[in-house]
Specification:
Blueprint (H helix, E strand, L loop, with lengths): L26 H6 L1 H16 L3 E4 L6 H18 L5 E4 L21 E2 L14
Helix pairs in contact: 2-3
InterPro entries: DUF1643 (IPR012441)
Pfam families: DUF1643 (PF07799)
Length: 126
């Protein structure tokens, strides 16, 4: 998929390390494991920091949790990079979050997020 989009490769991480068909079902595990999730962001940031770009794709199902955790991940990445990370998205929700890929067609293509598009990258519009 990455070569179709013009990238040489990709690595994937979840904002929350849980999987469920209904995102709202992972709210409780997020609360219980918050410390572990935040600790994992150092590893994720270290891996992502070696690249110049990242596709943001967490959707808007968990607004409160995303607003709490996504800026912390983006801050970790920024601390490990000498220059700003170029951010991409596969579309944007009505509330300004980058779409989760499971909510888009397989032939969707990423678009670059404008430099002023969301600061830490949580909501891309205000």
């Amino acid at each position: 998929m990455s070569w179709k989009w013009g990238f040489s490769g990709f690595i994937t991480y979840n904002l929350f390390p849980f999987e469920h068909g209904d995102p709202k079902e992972i709210k409780e595990p997020i609360r219980r494991r918050a410390r572990d999730i935040l600790a994992s962001y150092k590893k994720i940031a270290s891996d992502i920091a070696q690249f110049d770009s990242a596709i943001l794709a967490w959707g808007s199902e968990l607004k409160r949790e995303t607003d709490e955790f996504a800026p912390r991940l983006m801050e970790q990445i920024a601390l490990m990079r000498p220059s700003p990370l170029i951010k991409w998205r596969i579309g944007q929700t009505a509330t300004g979050y980058p779409f989760h890929p499971s909510r888009k067609r397989h032939d969707s293509r990423p678009e670059r997020i404008p430099e002023n598009g969301g600061g830490a990258g949580v909501r891309l519009t205000q």
